[in-house]
Write a structure and sequence with these properties.
The chain is α/β, with parallel strands linked by helices. About 45% of the residues lie in helices and about 15% in strands. The strands form 5 sheets. The chain has a 7-stranded parallel beta sheet with strand order 3-2-1-4-5-7-12, sandwiched between helices.
């Protein structure tokens, strides 16, 4: 007899915890959370800490979600055969959000997590179909499988002969190829978020990566110049949009495969606009913007040799992000918009919530003194009451 449980990976990560929250808040189904840990007790401790940070100490969801110690890098997910079979009989929906998002890991290490780990989750999905019922395998990919492609990249595009900026992009591309190869055998949804930042309402984030790194360096005077093209598009989405979209779309029936771009799309902004808005929010002068080739050949070596310690450290932390300041790609999202807009789920322009992102990041010391989501939500509620 098939169950009706949802299994989610990556629940201690930024997107995964937001997706988990939607399943707990919005329906009564049993949720299993695969968590990398030595045993179930450690997995439960990590899950409990995540839930407390997200909902606060008095949340009612502890009985609705069960932590399972597992490892997507090990055969069989590190589970014994009996437990894996029992779990497969219960699970009808899988959301695979676990991944390495590091731009600097070696390619082979990125593949071990993002490609081989996904292969093991697909193997488990096949077992779910054999032992019970599998309604969908939802895979959280990235819009950056487009790599260095120039021009529009559609939701059904994947291999267009592109090259990649880093091992992260390449490993996610390879993982999505693998996932798509299972279409027809298991029902598949692919979600491709672009750059994911904090919540649009409170600015809260559990991850100060990507867009935050150059903004932090800018705040601290560590980036006197940027290799960028002011007109290049920057596609940014708040994490609550991504999680709301995944939850909403995960309720749709799936035949073979459907891919959704969870992107700003027509609401994407530009590098120049981000620089100007950040400077205005922080009350600072804008950095010098130089053509990437000039910066790479002339300015970067000089800054590394003669710059201050602060400048050298900032360059080291942000250099992997420099290629994202001069991209030539745009992301079509017609399928996502057609389905999500009638449900009231839209990706807002960055201009409408960037000040809140920067305000929260500044308050949180750019990650050094971060608040939990529960604390941030309580503070926001208190401010609303005072304003009322």
């Amino acid at each position: 007899m098939a169950g009706n449980a949802v299994l989610i990976t990556g629940v201690t990560g930024f997107i995964g915890m937001e997706v988990l929250a939607r399943f707990l808040e919005r329906n009564g189904r049993q949720v299993y959370a695969l968590i990398r840990a030595r045993d179930d007790e450690e997995a439960e401790r990590r899950l409990s800490a995540t839930l407390r940070g997200f909902f606060g100490a008095g949340h009612p969801f502890a009985g609705r979600v069960q932590a399972i110690a597992a490892d997507i890098e090990r055969p069989g997910l590190g589970l014994d055969r009996m437990r894996r079979a029992e779990l497969a009989e219960e699970v009808t929906d899988i959301v695979h959000a676990a991944a390495s998002v590091s731009f600097t890991l070696p390619l082979e290490r990125s593949r071990e997590i993002n490609v081989d780990g996904t292969a093991r989750m697909l193997e488990f999905a096949g077992l779910c179909r054999q032992r019970g019922e599998l309604r969908r395998f939802s895979y959280v990919s990235t819009a950056y499988v487009a790599g260095l492609h120039a021009g529009e990249f559609g939701e059904q595009d994947l291999d267009v002969g592109q090259q990649f900026r880093n091992p992260y992009e390449q490993s996610k591309f390879e993982a999505e190829l693998l996932v798509r190869g299972h279409a027809g055998r298991i029902p598949i949804q692919v979600f491709r978020p672009s750059i994911v930042v904090g919540e649009q309402t409170t600015g809260w984030t559990a991850s100060f990566n990507v867009l935050y790194a150059p903004m932090k360096a800018f705040v601290r005077g560590g980036l006197p110049a940027l290799p960028a093209r002011r007109s290049s598009l920057v596609d940014v989405v708040p994490v609550d949009y991504v999680a709301d979209a995944i939850y909403e779309l995960s309720g749709d029936p799936v035949d073979e495969i459907q891919t959704y771009h969870l992107v700003a799309g027509s609401n994407a902004t530009t590098v120049g606009r981000v620089i100007e808005m950040t400077a205005a929010c922080l009350g600072r002068h804008t950095p010098v913007v130089l053509p990437p080739s000039l910066f790479r050949r002339v300015i970067y070596p000089v800054l590394v040799r003669r710059g201050s310690e602060r400048v050298r450290k900032s360059l080291e932390r942000t250099k992997a992000l420099f290629p994202y300041f001069s991209m030539g790609v745009s992301y079509a999202d017609a399928a996502a918009r057609a389905r999500l807009e009638p449900a009231g789920i839209t990706a807002p322009p960055l201009e409408t919530y960037l000040p809140g992102l920067i305000a929260y990041a500044s308050r949180a010391g750019w990650g050094r003194a971060a608040l939990t989501r529960a604390q941030c939500a309580a503070a926001s509620e208190a401010r609303d009451l005072v304003a009322a």
